[in-house]
């Protein structure tokens, strides 16, 4: 999730250091990734003829244990395509977490593209549970005053916190009993899998569709993957063209994704350990953790009775370290 105002990067006085720690989206491709991109065989992806895109889609589908995958420009596009493909009979509603990306940070796309009502549930700092879903669920009782719930969206990780597989399975069971689809925004599911030891395909078993981001923590300049059944992906591909998301020689970008899966993803455990080490140091200085540090994000609050975060952000910016304020004035690193 990338939700702070990062439109302007603070000026730095120390030009010898350039550590931009606002988000795991500000990475740039390594020289090896760029080399793989330049050497990628390409074709016209709108015609389904780009061999590198086809290879990436097949690799992601295999990782998720699903029949098909679709290469998209961003996770926002991937999530909105999923919602639009799942829902086609308004009025309808979608249950989501109150802090979820699809609710807060996708420009109200579900309301515009799908004419769907978003029902946010849950509490900040905690993953969704079956009880949360039950509380917000609108049954299809043919009551003309309400929009029945036909889709549940989950997010894993949420603010860097891993959603337990057992909670996903409980929500999936609830949804299946009511013939309701489940979509997973797994933009950082790569991190969740590394941290929990649970294979991505195990998470995917609990949902009908899922999104995987290639730029968040994976180092790619562009890209996300939408994964699901073949009929679902075929329709999402149709909507992608309507959204303006058809691209031609996209294998140059897909090659970065294939490289990241083989070379960047295996390094995430080290990244998580570094995040935990940083969190321990900040706690020792008196900061309070806003959320558990499961993966690559550290969210801290000011020490009790002290307001130092903005001063710290400004001081570090002058020394070449850029941070961002998010989540109700928590500092995210």
Topology (SSEs and partners):
Elements: E1 19-20, H1 31-38, H2 51-64, E2 68-72, H3 75-86, E3 92-97, H4 101-104, H5 109-113, E4 116-121, H6 130-136, E5 149-155, H7 165-177, E6 181-185, H8 189-196, H9 200-204, E7 209-213, E8 224-228, H10 230-242, H11 251-264, H12 268-284, E9 288-289, E10 299-301, H13 309-317, E11 321-322, E12 324-326, E13 330-332
Parallel strand pairs: 1-11, 3-4, 3-5, 5-6, 6-7
Antiparallel strand pairs: 2-8, 7-8, 9-10, 10-13, 12-13
Structural overview:
This protein is of the alpha/beta class and 333 residues long. 39% of the residues lie in helices and 16% in strands. The chain has helices at 31-38, 51-64, 75-86, 101-104, 109-113, 130-136, 165-177, 189-196, 200-204, 230-242, 251-264, 268-284, 309-317, and strands at residues 19-20, 68-72, 92-97, 116-121, 149-155, 181-185, 209-213, 224-228, 288-289, 299-301, 321-322, 324-326, 330-332. It has a 7-stranded mixed beta sheet with strand order 2-8-7-6-5-3-4, with helices on both faces. It has a 4-stranded antiparallel beta sheet with strand order 9-10-13-12, covered by helices on one side. Strand 5 (149-155), helix 7 (165-177) and strand 6 (181-185) form a beta-alpha-beta unit. It is globular, with a radius of gyration of 20 Å. The relative contact order is 0.18. The mean pLDDT is 92.
Return Rg in Å: 20 Å
The average pLDDT is 92
| Secondary structure tally, helices | 13
Series of secondary-structure elements, N-terminal to C-terminal: EHHEHEHHEHEHEHHEEHHHEEHEEE
Low-confidence runs (pLDDT<50, min 5 residues)? Answer: none
Number of strands: 13
Q: Level of helix content?
A: 25-40%
Major sheet strand order: 2-8-7-6-5-3-4
Q: What best-fitting shape do the alpha-carbon axes yield?
A: globular
Q: What is the first-to-last residue Cα distance?
A: 13 Å
Strand content: 15-25%
Q: Biggest β-sheet: count, sense, barrel?
A: 7 strands, mixed
SS-based class: alpha/beta
């Amino acid at each position: 999730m990338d939700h702070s105002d990062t439109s302007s990067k603070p000026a730095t006085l120390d030009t010898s250091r350039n550590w931009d720690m606002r988000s795991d989206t500000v990475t740039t491709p390594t020289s090896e990734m760029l080399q793989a991109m330049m050497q990628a065989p390409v074709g016209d992806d709108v015609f389904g003829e780009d061999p590198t895109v086809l290879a990436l889609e097949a690799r992601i589908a295999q990782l998720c244990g699903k029949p098909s995958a679709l290469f998209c420009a961003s996770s926002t596009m991937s999530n909105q395509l999923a919602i639009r493909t799942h829902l086609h009979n308004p009025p309808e509603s979608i249950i989501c977490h109150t802090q979820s990306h699809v609710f807060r940070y996708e420009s109200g796309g579900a309301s515009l593209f799908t004419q769907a009502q978003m029902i946010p549930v849950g509490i900040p700092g905690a993953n969704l549970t079956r009880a949360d879903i039950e509380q917000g669920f609108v049954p299809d009782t043919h009551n003309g005053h309400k929009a029945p719930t036909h889709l549940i969206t989950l997010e894993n990780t949420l603010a860097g916190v891993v959603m337990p597989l057992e909670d996903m399975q409980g929500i999936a069971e609830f949804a299946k009993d009511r013939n309701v689809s489940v979509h997973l925004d797994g933009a950082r599911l790569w991190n969740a899998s590394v941290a929990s030891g649970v294979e991505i395909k195990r998470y995917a078993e609990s949902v009908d569709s899922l999104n995987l981001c290639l730029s968040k923590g994976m180092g790619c300049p562009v890209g996300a993957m939408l994964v699901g059944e073949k009929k679902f992906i075929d329709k999402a591909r149709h909507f992608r063209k309507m959204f303006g998301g058809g691209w031609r020689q996209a294998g140059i970008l897909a090659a970065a994704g294939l490289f990241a899966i083989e070379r960047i993803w295996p390094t995430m455990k080290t990244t998580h350990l570094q995040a935990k080490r940083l969190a321990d140091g900040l706690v020792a200085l008196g900061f309070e953790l806003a959320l558990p540090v499961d993966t690559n994000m550290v969210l801290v609050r000011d020490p009790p009775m002290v307001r130092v975060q903005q001063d710290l952000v400004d001081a570090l910016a002058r020394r070449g370290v850029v941070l961002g304020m998010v989540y109700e004035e928590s500092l995210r690193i």
